[in-house]
């Protein structure tokens, strides 16, 4: 009975020490971040505010675990229970550090992205930097997660023994893993290469697989292209290094739009050229750079006219082309109806009638 009572007292004492330690750790955490809040308000930068805001959770867990680790000798826990307790604290400590690093990566991502407005009219640099930052952030998160998992596994003795055995046969394992994961590794390397060389960026207008759309998302392994009709085309990221594709906004978002007309040979071109200039000047989708009308081909019975107009981006170019096409046809129909494409036939009078 005395042994049982002593065990109960030890358990209650140890539990009291643990609870008191957690309370002290929370007080320390509160005081530190209260001080951090006051200091961050004195600065104009938003970075320190974000660090304080998003770092609370990981820091709280880290401080609690750290305090418990140092008070563990006086808790009365001994033997296998102490080994298990310290193992648990080690795992929580590693988890808090990994959590903190990943959170800080997201904080710095948000801070850097806030410096660039991707919705601006001239957003070429913003899209380039945003693409790089997001891909690099994902690479860092993957690396930190893998390292954290590796450190956690190495805290277990049995895993260390398995690791020694694996290292002894690293040659064979390396070949097997390399063959099995070659596509995944290739995509990861392609993601890093795209972040550096940037053949595509976020919000780039591309024509891929005969589909027109915008780059909506770039990850380490795949790219999502938002098609004009709101479908999504998902492609492995290595596709953009191994296959040709059109990037309409590689160096600038400005683009030329073309509209073709088929009219009769009797159609005078000068009035159409003047009308085209009048139409584009009345629209807000024309950027004022290019406006031209040319005879590009002569076909049987008709001649081909090409209207060339410019816009600041592909979306406005599409709207401008539709406007030009509609109003030019209406102008021809109202003013030169006889110059619309005609089908000509020669009639010969014969004894039996007309043929």
Summarize the structure.
It is built from ten helices and ten strands. The protein is α+β, with helices and mostly antiparallel strands and 355 residues long.
How would you characterize the overall build of this protein?
The chain has 355 residues and is an alpha+beta fold. Helices cover 59% and strands 16% of the residues. The chain has a five-stranded antiparallel beta sheet. Strands 6-8-7 form a three-stranded antiparallel beta sheet, covered by helices on one side. Helix 2 runs antiparallel to helix 3 (79-113). The termini are far apart.
Q: Please estimate the helix content.
A: 55-70%
Tally of contiguous helical segments: 10
Structural class: alpha+beta
Shape: elongated
Uncertain segments? 1-6, 162-173
Q: Gyration radius, to the nearest Å?
A: 35 Å
Give the amount of beta strand, in percent.
15-25%
Largest sheet: 5 strands, antiparallel
Widest beta sheet: strand line-up: 4-3-2-1-5
Round the mean pLDDT to the nearest integer and report it: 78
SSE pattern, N- to C-terminal = HHHHHHHEEEEHEEHEEHEE
Number of strands: 10
Distance between the termini: 127 Å
Furnish the topology, listing elements before pairings.
Layout: H1 2-41, H2 47-71, H3 79-113, H4 124-154, H5 157-168, H6 170-180, H7 182-197, E1 205-208, E2 211-218, E3 222-227, E4 232-236, H8 239-242, E5 246-247, E6 255-263, H9 269-281, E7 291-299, E8 302-311, H10 314-335, E9 349-350, E10 353-354
Antiparallel strand pairs: 1-2, 1-5, 2-3, 3-4, 6-8, 7-8, 9-10
Helix pairs in contact: 1-2, 2-3, 3-4, 4-7, 9-10
